[in-house]
């Protein structure tokens, strides 16, 4: 299954144009042998850590206890949107088991703008963050409102989204 919002045989970009080009990689980051210097981490709270797992080639983010504990990881590079072109972003991730007071996010976003997938407690959502009005606002679309396939086992795919297993988030955006 290539994507869920359109039939799989479609090959259109976010503008509805037939995608006939080859993707150009603007950024590629893997952690096969060690953490790399393309990322910066902000670790807050007792027990919060960021560590490289050599046996799995991944970076493990652990959030400590306490209501202010957090771990943020972002690239040191900025990827500006180019008007008239769709921007295809692919993220791979494995999240912790969803639980109360744990918010997990992955996507293309910063402090002011972006789009991302979020697990907040047991609620799965896609979120658009925007500062276009001068104040940061977030529009959440919870799993219960996803249109084509809710990925809860009841949709056409029959899939039940398990964020504790390896996932690929494919985001094709334009504005």
How many DSSP E strands?
10
Low-pLDDT runs of 5+ residues are 1-8
For the residues shown, what is the average pLDDT?
87
Spatial gap, N to C terminus: 26 Å
Total domain count: 2
By DSSP (H or I, 4+ residues per run), the number of helices equals 0
In order across it, which strands form the biggest sheet? 6-7-8-9
Kindly report the oligomeric state of this protein. Answer: single chain
**What general outline do the C-alpha atoms trace?**
globular
Task: Kindly estimate the percentage of residues that lie in beta strands according to DSSP.
Answer: 35-45%
Structural class from helices and strands?
mainly beta
Largest sheet: number of strands, sense, barrel closure: 4 strands, antiparallel
Rg calculated over all Cα atoms: 17 Å
Helical coverage, percent range: under 10%
Order of helices and strands: EEEEEEEEEE
């Amino acid at each position: 299954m290539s994507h869920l919002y359109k039939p799989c045989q479609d090959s259109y970009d976010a503008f509805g144009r037939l995608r006939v080009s080859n993707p150009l990689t603007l950024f590629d980051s893997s952690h096969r042998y060690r953490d790399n210097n393309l990322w910066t981490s902000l670790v807050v709270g007792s027990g919060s850590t960021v560590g490289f797992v050599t046996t799995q080639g991944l970076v493990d983010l652990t959030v400590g206890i306490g209501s202010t504990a957090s771990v943020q990881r972002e690239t040191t590079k900025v990827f500006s949107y180019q008007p008239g072109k769709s921007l295809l972003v692919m993220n791979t991730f494995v999240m912790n088991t969803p639980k109360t007071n744990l918010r997990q996010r992955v996507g293309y976003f910063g402090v002011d703008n972006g789009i991302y997938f979020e697990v907040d407690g047991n609620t799965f959502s896609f979120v658009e963050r925007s500062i276009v009005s001068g104040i940061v606002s977030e529009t959440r679309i919870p799993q219960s409102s996803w249109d084509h396939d809710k990925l809860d086992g009841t949709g056409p795919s029959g899939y039940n989204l398990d964020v504790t297993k390896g996932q690929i988030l494919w985001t094709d955006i334009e504005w």
